[in-house]
Amino acid sequence: xxxxxxxxxxxxxxxxxxxxxxxxxxxxxxxxxxxxxxxxxxxxxxxxxxxxxxxxxxxxxxxxxxxxxxxxxxxxxxxxxxxxxxxxxxxxxxxxxxxxxxxxxxxxxxxxxxxxxxxxxxxxxxxxxxxxxxxxxxxxxxxxxxxxxxxxxxxxxxxxxxxxxxxxxxxxxxxxxxxxxxxxxxxxxxxxxxxxxxxxxxxxxxxxxxxxxxxxxxxxxxxxxxxxxxxxxxxxxxxxxxxxxxxxxxxxxxxxxxxxxxxxxxxxxxxxxxxxxxxxxxxxxxxxxxxxxxxxxxxxxxxxxxxxxxxxxxxxxxxxxxxxxxxxxxxxxxxxxxxxxxxxxxxxxxxxxxxxxxxxxxxxxxxxxxxxxxxxxxxxxxxxxxxxxxxx
Length: 392
Fold this sequence. Notes:
Layout: E1 2-7, H1 16-26, E2 30-35, H2 41-51, E3 55-59, H3 66-71, E4 77-80, E5 91-95, H4 97-108, E6 115-119, H5 126-141, E7 145-149, H6 155-168, E8 173-177, H7 180-192, E9 201-206, H8 210-213, E10 221-225, H9 227-243, E11 250-254, E12 256-260, H10 273-285, H11 292-299, H12 303-314, H13 318-333, H14 341-347, H15 353-364, H16 368-373, H17 376-382
């Protein structure tokens, strides 16, 4: 049995889906070995000599120097999210950073404000720049103003400069951060300076790292990326290279799954104040056992009147809106094979696993297992989504 050697931080929550995708594509024909990717060139050379792998997969978002490249020798390598700091012919699998920016723009434009902002990472990097460029371009296409913060390389200067910049932004504003960690820093500055989130600053991150997004109040909305798809593409591209030694350069992209709505972002669409408050409450609290009666109470009227007003303005019922948010989150969580259907049902606001199963089947025509086992593009097509079909 041949060995495939992966250099991924296995303990990092971000890469559990990536590893699941790699394992699923490799199946039982290859033995997968995973080591921490933060190794120097001499250690990498020894690991390759020890395992004698058929091929390697390496997470390399911080770029690589020539010594790392040489350490692999003639062993085929697929690089995951490689920053284009090194020149040459590579087999690359990268996140669709342009899509990230477009999704963020579509989400935040719903806040219906005049000013938007992008906050890049403290250390400049390719994926942050790409997300920012796409977001800015998409916002300006709508005739809106987009402010961009790049900052300095010094951590002290970066935090101080970011704070001054955030305070000077026209309010209200929709803010897209380059990732969840950056969004958390923005959240801390806004909260410390008593700028209410989301009333004066709607906030959106990327990666949907739950521990990061939900450790602050209000919780941070985030774009969930299909890391399992990324891992599947890495393994598939490596297998293609092993079957065709002439393949020396290729680029594949993996997509996002959509926005996980939490309390840090809200709509300001042309609803009445009552219905707008109800919509935002549903988006923020649908997965914590909120009921139709709770929404009616928040609207300050009877359930019957609340239902009439909500349907008149949104075209749907309050219950349907709650269910839509819950099932949106369920679709994303099902991509994480470390979560059981029972735990997912609780995380989505359902009292029992069976309740989630029934609602999911009714909405998408697929069981939870069928959804989890299908490739991403097929999921979207079978459930009536709009993503273009992709080979997998």
